[in-house]
Amino acid sequence: MPRSPAAAPRQRIVNRMLSFAVFEENAPAFVGSAGQGWPLRHAHVFGADDVPLQAEVRYADGVIRCEKRGPESAGLSLQYPVDPIESLGGAGGVLTVQTCLLPERERPYLLSLELARHRLMLILNKLEDWALFDLPAGDPGMQLFEKARRAFTDALVAHATDAKRNGNANPYCAKTDHLARRALSLAVLASETLTLYQARNQFGRRMSGELAAAAAKIATPANALTDHEAAESRNALIGSVGVILPTPPQVGAVVGPELYSPALCKAVSLTCDFVTMPMRWVEMEPTEGKYLFAKTDKWIEWAVRTARVPVIGGPIVDFRRGCVPEWLYIWEHDYETLRELVYEHVKNIVTRYRRTIGTWTVCSGLPVNANFTFTFEQIMDLTRLVVMVVRKLQPSAKVQVQIDHPWGEYYSYSPRAVHPVMYAETIGQAGINPDLFALRIEMGQPEPGRSTRDLMAFSALLDRYATLDRPISVAAVCAPASLPEGTPLSPIHLTDPGYWRRPWSPEAQAAWMTQVFGIAASKPFVHSICWDELYELPSAPGAEAESHHHGLIDADGLPRPALWRLGEIRAAIRGKNSPLTLPEAVQPGSLA
After folding, report:
1. How many independent structural domains does the chain possess?
2. How many Cα atoms are found within 13 Å in the side-chain-facing hemisphere of 281?
3. Who is most buried in 77, 150, 223, 384, counting CB within 10 A?
4. Are residues 278 and 344 in the same domain?
5. Residues 99 and 19 grouped into a single domain
């Protein structure tokens, strides 16, 4: 039997407390969770506009308690098992989902009920954003939505009956939780079905030029006082946000410079419209003043002269742990000297490659502020500096600023951080004006902020950044091909990233790639989509194994199904067909 949410003494629930009842026998069977009660993973509290709030989230006696610092309404985002509905096509998985904004109250909310409520609300909001309210009742997505709505209503009725019968002593029962969990499963399945429908429909409109033509014909409303109001009016009519690009999306992969072989070159030729060449400072200048260009030169020379594919360089500046050389830490508390070193580094890199690289990712991860510590003014100053240097040295180049954690979960536990949307908005307001915003979207990784989310959440994220009215580059997107492994800093029982539909495998990775690339390619504001990364490095003897496993070619040099699927996606887009029309089975090729 589940523990009663009322088991905790009432006096422990204080002001600024949000609490949720859960049923322990329904807890996900995560690795390492045995005997630990209901596992809290990737849990954080958020406020208006889904901005994370600093709060303490803990579990005890059948209740998740969220202690906030303010009295405002808030919601809870966390990893939760979404049960598959096998008779309706499956879906499900272990996903990060969220509740609506909820006011404080003494009695706990039922977590499963609030998760289902938010998903139904999200569907209605996206139907409005996508101008899909005219879908017939017989549409598969709408039928699933109706099933989810009915299941949610049944859960509400069951809860009301229990509350009337038992009062506040035990307001929830297992039946209510079961009905709410079914409503959530149906709602997630409905949301993904509608997301894929919208992606297939919008891809055709994008590739035919219909979206651009429709937007051009819409006159600015006479009562629109600002450009933002005019854009909102246009978006409501065409069912899309952001800019509308006249060219089809390009697909590519991140190619690390460590390995170079004919097989890897062939893999790029068969699958990529472009390549991204990472330029980690620690690899480019491991010793102060001594640059190592040879490996990067070899790949760029092949891409430009032999393959004749464009190259995106960078991020040039990335202060994440493992990306900066050890000698730079000497200056981490001397901002003026550090700024001068950043200037010289960007100048040296761009000067060397400005004849071969047409697009630069100038910086990444600055607002996370997790390794080097900067003030908000210093973060913006560094962003302005690196953009300015590239503009000065290579005026014809495209410049993009990369958002490393676009959901911004780090903002809930780092008081020094800047929320990614606020960072991007401030860039525009400050007149820095990059050509694109680049998003790094890693899922299924055993790290904070890299957990697995569903397809509608992915689509909604892209739409959120499209409101910045700049083209979006999905600069690094990936999911693993096998179950993740823990690390000493990120034990798997604390950071298990979950999975989409079924546990991660090479086949699950390829299926996920198909859906995600299909959704991104349908967005008229998406300029390019890049898989991170082409290959995995073999582990050195005695070293810890790489835990991400998201390469298109594994550490033994064997291609995974996702490699061939990337080539099929490129061919589909070139043929003006949505990647979502591809068959589930991948046709393997050869790198021999």
Report:
1. 2
2. 27
3. 77
4. yes
5. yes
Within-domain flag for 230: no
464 in Cβ contact with 441 (< 8 Å): no
- Give the residue from 204, 229, 262 where a domain finishes: 204
80: number of Cβ within 10 Å: 25
407 and 316, same domain (yes or no): yes
Contact 471, 245 (CB under 8 A): yes
Whether residue 257 is found in the same domain as residue 325: yes
Interatomic CA distance for residues 91 and 297, integer angstroms: 44
Q: Are residues 151 and 49 in the same domain?
A: yes
Strand partners, 17: 67
Cβ contact 399:350 at 8 Å? no
How far apart, in whole angstroms, are the C-alpha atoms of residue 66 and residue 44?
Answer: 9
Q: What angle is formed at CA 71 by the lines to CA 67 and CA 27, rounded to 5 degrees?
A: 35
Tokens at residue 142, please? 């709408």
Helix axes 376-393, 335-353, angle to 10 degrees: 30
Distance CA 178, CA 409 (A): 29
Query: How far is 151 from 80, CA to CA, in rounded Å?
Result: 18
Closest CA to 317 of 233, 382, 260, 222: 382
CA 429/CA 421 separation, integer angstroms: 12
Strand, helix or coil at 474? Answer: strand
| The two three-digit tokens of residue 444, written as one number | 């299924």
In a domain, 586, yes or no: no
Nearest CA-CA partner of 70 in 50, 57, 58, 53: 53
**Claim to verify: residue 184 and residue 269 sit in the same structural domain:** no
Helix (H, G, I), strand (E, B) or coil at 77: strand
461-511 residue pLDDT tens = 999 999 999 999 999 999 999 976 655 445 556 778 999 999 999 999 999
CB neighbours of residue 200 within 10 Å: 17
**Residues 171 and 280 placed together within one structural domain of the fold:** no
CA dist., res. 349 & res. 372, Å (int): 21
Tokens standing for residue 496: 């298990």
Q: How many CB atoms lie within 10 A of CB 309?
A: 16
Q: Does residue 42 contact residue 128 with C-beta atoms inside 8 Å?
A: no
Task: Express each pLDDT in 5-33 by its tens digit.
Answer: 444 444 444 446 899 999 866 544 333 33
Alpha helices in 285-375 (DSSP H): 294-301, 335-353
On the question of pLDDT at 541 being above 60, the answer is no
Cα 237–238–243 angle (5° rounding)? 120
- Structural domain for 155, as ranges: 5-204
Alpha carbon 129 to chain centroid, angstroms: 20
Domain-embedded: residue 242: no
Provide φ and ψ at 450, rounded to 5°.
Answer: -120, 20
Look at residues 140, 173, 204 and tell me which one is the last residue of a structural domain.
Answer: 204
Q: How far apart are CA 461 and CA 112, in angstroms?
A: 23
Verify that 59 and 176 share a domain, yes or no. yes
d(CA 188, CA 145): 9
Sequence-separated (6 or more) residues with CB below 8 Å from residue 535 = 255, 256, 259, 264, 267, 551, 552, 553, 554, 557
In the structure, what pLDDT confidence band is assigned to residue 218 with cuts at 50, 70 and 90? confident
H/E element holding 277?
strand 274-277
Identify whether 578 is part of a domain. Answer: no
